[in-house]
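Protein modeling request. Please complete all fields; requests missing the sequence field cannot be processed.
Requester role: graduate student
Desired output: 3D structure, token encoding
Chains: 1
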Amino acid sequence: MKIYVVQAARNAFKNGAPFCRIFITTPGNIDSEPVESTMATRNNATRWSDRLYDLSTTELYAYLKVNSRNKMFYIEYTYIQIGKDEEWYQMQCEQLEFDKVRIKREIHLQRIRGSSESPFDEDDLDVINGLQRTCISEVLLNKIYSVRLYEKLKSEIPYIVGVDCSTGTNNDNTAMTIIDPYNERAVGEFKSPLMSVQDVCTFIRLLVKKIIPRAIICIERNSLGDAVIQLLKQTEVSPNLYFDRDNVASNSTDKLDAHGFIKQEAENRRFYGIQTNVKTREMMIQILYRLVAEKKESFAVEYVISDLNNLIKKKSGKIEARPGEHDDNIMSFLIGMYILYHGKRLYMWGFKKGSTPLDD
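Delivered output (360 residues):
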């Protein structure tokens, strides 16, 4: 295995001594030069998980290969994780004279927005940030894909899974958000910058088989997403794929005309997944505004809230991620929410709108 490092690190590696490079930053305004100039380094790294302590060195390099563009880990701990208590927290707040901005930045490690480009009210974002839940566990699928969970998931619940597929170009991520349909809240998340079509299919199959067997998989039907859907239709998780037409052909004989030619396949493909066009994207943005105003607890998870904070409204009126940032996880969240709000066939996967888990 070739490892390209500076000479001192190369010598350490040769002699069997430990070596690393450590970059330390402190949060600042999102729009400030220090934050913007280091944004790419953070975005290209993959988040460290304590579950990774269980991996061997070879397995760690394999994990980095799939999850990090710059072969670096981003490590961040809360004050509770490093052994501090509420008494320490209160003392720090006193020393900062209870300045909300400084507390967010210096204790909670939040990068605060310094401009008014956000389409949302700052007070609403403050509340949503305060409602962010703590990740309680990380499930490592195939020792490569790390799924962050924010509550203990139940196998009998038909969780809605929004999937935003990416080819890994333009610094985009393949992102996934797990939504509890009964309380309309995100309960799990995942993202990776470097996944092929086969990787995404493997991940989704493992997710269904090992964590949420009744999942309703809602995939954005872009070029990569369409390929993922077609491959997954040939696997054991085909029944988990969301589609929105009553009469989708279910076997090869249904797809042939009187002359034996494929008749319905091209049409049937259009009914799997979610097409994000001008109309559906506008509906998703309206859902986003509604959730920010009325159901702030729905966002709940770190990647989704981070993307929400980094959305800007352009002069054209379009809402998108600010330059250098991502909106992949917020889009996977909205894809799932769009199906939750507008999907007409969720009963086929065992979910009835307005019901509770006990009702089902």
